[in-house]
Amino acid sequence: MIGTIWHAVFFQPITTTLLWLSSFTGNIGVSVVLLTVIIQLILVPLRLPSLLSAKKLRHIKPKIDELKEQHGEDKVALAQAQMALYQEHGINPFGGLLPTLFSIPIIIALYQVLLNNITHIENSSVGFLWLNVTQHDPYFVLPILVGVLQFFASSQMMAQPAPAQPDKKKVDDTEQMMVAMQTQMKFIFPVLSGIITASLPSGVGLYWLTSTLFAIIQHEVIERIYKHGSSDHSNATN
Question: What span, in angstroms and rounded, lies between the C-alpha atoms of 184 and 114?
């Protein structure tokens, strides 16, 4: 049952789309890049709310700090006040989970396609630049590029929030620990991404590289739109 669902939802659509693209491009690597762009465009409606929520969350950081001072050690009251604040500003703190969870099976399915079905694609080259999409990068250039882009993407998502007022008390130990963990993951995750990419077929690495680049560009576009919207709102209220 699970295998049938997996085949129908992920494996077969990716295989069919890759075959269709390869019939036009004649190159598996180019087809993987185009497939990645198509998948990321499909995921845009799922990612936009989470990106906007992240922007709003950083914007209301001073208000969250005020709630922490107001409720002190009362974690239940603090959580209720934070959720009310999130609802007031239309923020879904868990909105980014769905796109992330959806991306994992896509990578697994693409890995299976490249290992099992790639040899059945006629009149298509598996060579892309210096890569063979069915094998790992022998020069480890692709894993390094993936790691660098992942670091840049992590830096975007972990940008410094709006500063609190000078008279606010120092961040508590829990938040300091969270900031430290975020800083560590900012470096650890890109390294892990590079190591994982080095062990996978280059076609999967191309997907990872292209999707990360797409995410970076998407984040920049949202950033500009949000700043433009905030500027227009400020001008309207003045």
Answer: 33
